[in-house]
Amino acid sequence: MKKKSKLHPTIFVIFGGTGDLNKRKLSPALYNLYTEGYMPEKFAIIGTGRTEFTGNQYQEELLHSVNEFSRNGKVKKQDWHNFEQNIHYCVVDINVQKTFENLKKEIVKYQKEFGSETQVIYYLAVAPNFFAPIATCLKKYKLTQDEDNCRIVIEKPFGHDLETAQELNLLLKGIFTEKQIYRIDHYLGKETVQNMMAFRFANSLFEPLWNRNHIEHIQISVTEQLGVGNRGNYYEEAGALRDMIQNHLLQLLCLVGMEAPINYDADEIRDRKVEVLKAVRTFKPEDISTNAVRGQYSKGWVEGKEVAGYRTENGVNPQSNTETFAAVKFFIDNWRWQGIPFYLRTGKRLNQTSSIISIQFKDVPHHIFSANATETWQQNRLIISIQPEMSIRLQVQAKRPGLKMVLNPVDMVFDYKGTYDTDTPEAYETLLLDVMNSDQTLFMRGDQVEVAWELVMPILNAWENHTSLSFPNYPADSWGPEDAEALIAKDGFHWFALPLKDKV
Question: Catalytic one among 186, 248, 466, 494?
Answer without folding.
Answer: 248
